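Shipment paperwork, digital attachment
Item: protein structure file
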Amino acid sequence: MPLTLERTWIEGTGRHLPGPAIDNAAMDAYIAPLNRLSGRIKRRILAENGIQQRHYAIDPDGGTRISCAGMAAAAIRACLEDAGAQLDEIGLLACGTAGGDALMPGFASMVQGELAAPPMQTLSAHGICASGVGAWEAAAASVELGAHAHALVAAAEMPSRLFKRSRYAAQGYDADFDAHFLRWMLSDGAGALRLTSAPRRDRPVRLRLRGIHQRSFSGDYPVCMQLGLTADRRRSHLDYAAWAEAEADGALLLRQDIRLLPHLFDVGVHEYARLCHAGWLDPARIDHFLCHYSSEKFAPVVDALMHKAGLAIPRERWYSNLVERGNTGAASIFVMLDEFLRTRAPAPGERILCFVPESGRFTVAFALIEVEAGDAPVDARRRGPAATPPAAPPDKDAVPPPHDPAQAADAALRRLLGELATLWHDYRSRAWRTPIVRALREGRFTLAHYRQWMHHWIPQVREGSRWMREGAASVTAPYEALAALIETHAGDEQDDYGILFDDYRRAGGAVADIDLLRRNPGGQALDSYLHALAALPNPVGLLGAIYVIEGTGQRIIPALLPLMKAQLDLPPDAYRFLEYHGENDEHHLLRWLRGVEIVLAHDDPDGRGARAIVQTARRTAELYLMQFEHVLAEGAEPEPNP
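Attachment content:
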């Protein structure tokens, strides 16, 4: 669970953006085109990310005007000035960055040296965008526990030095798209804030830090953004005889696998849903949402995912300065918070939620801030970060508000979607760690693996329309409309197994008769469970099974397909089933949502229908995972060689 805070305040923020603002036309003077394709790539990326200007700490000749540590020090000075505080009061300096000026020592030590600061505790957090929040959390915990009365947090990034045209000379000024991409995405800057356990009382408002939460999913996904590895992520720059050889082999180019990026926001929003379901966050009580995203095109993606989870924050409450300030990585959330506080006037009682997704190997971070009146008592009464102040005793003579069925239905739907999102979050993470998916992630996936997977999967897909039709036949009043929806969905699913079997044969599958294919133990258990459930009266819980199965097709399969194509030498028509599901399961899930609304409209006061959907989803997820596990399990029936 998140770090919950009661005795820590933010008092002072600052930022440093080096040099003049650079618009898109002036970028070429700093980040020169590499080849004839550079202009086209630049136009495409800038059109998507929406950034209009940014700042660079290098000059047009590539010379460094201010170091990364120097930017952090400048942001700290601005922060101390804002707080009316002195450097010698600070007990802890915590700094985050993706890469400072030196490989050693730690970045915080270099910043302390730049400031000529007195002796103090330091902490360096290394990572990418979430490293700044890592430093923030460490400093907040130290203040909360009383180890230090005041702490400074700073984050700085200076990627421009990596993007100079001269860096690409060893590759003949050529680079793959993944290495091109970030040249037009990232820029330089620094931000800082001061934490204290003893806030001043002479200001209109103050900011109490209510909690910080970080969670890494590095065990689930491949590397997405990296510096120091080859393009295939298999060799470190330190494995070469000399750095010149590593540079010539492209191991010192900053790369991002953009095919994985959409899944970062899926992970982030599901973690957000988990925190809401646990009661740590309440979307209705978030007045300002500071969302760090690398591209304007991802804002509607985050918004849509929040709506699907029934936990949306209205867009008018969002704040971002990406367009004017650019993407400064770990510094972005601090630069954003500083500018927000200087240009907006948050009122006492309002709450600010900061959200930072990191694409390195997928980490998500949240910080929750509560605005208080500047002269409010400085107390440390324990109440949860998302909780409301104690309510006044009820008036016995008051007339109760009228019951609104539509509002009650909306609340039930939000609650159900939140529970399912939390369940999905765990299922997706475990699915990415199963042996078959790990083989894909690690580049060990073979044609035999693909055929083995389909050998087990085809008969399970074949049974899908059958248990759906059995379930539709078991539906009676008042759910007649649900029966029609399930029957329609079963019709869509009926011939899917034939497409998958054709793909299997095109991939060299040896079994010519589809009736000879056998489910593995996990698939057999899943089919037995769903057929038994479908035979019960009004098996509305089947919607939970459909949620997991269709969600796998929409959210997991599209991420696996590019990895398969990269590792297998197969014609495009050997992946028709996987491509179809990645493109069409979105429509299936919209139909599923209508089915859920039908169930909730007729649910009893105890919510038995909603509980059945969640319970079935949970059991289906466990059995689906069992099916994944058994594809490469020891003793699994191997397919004969063709």
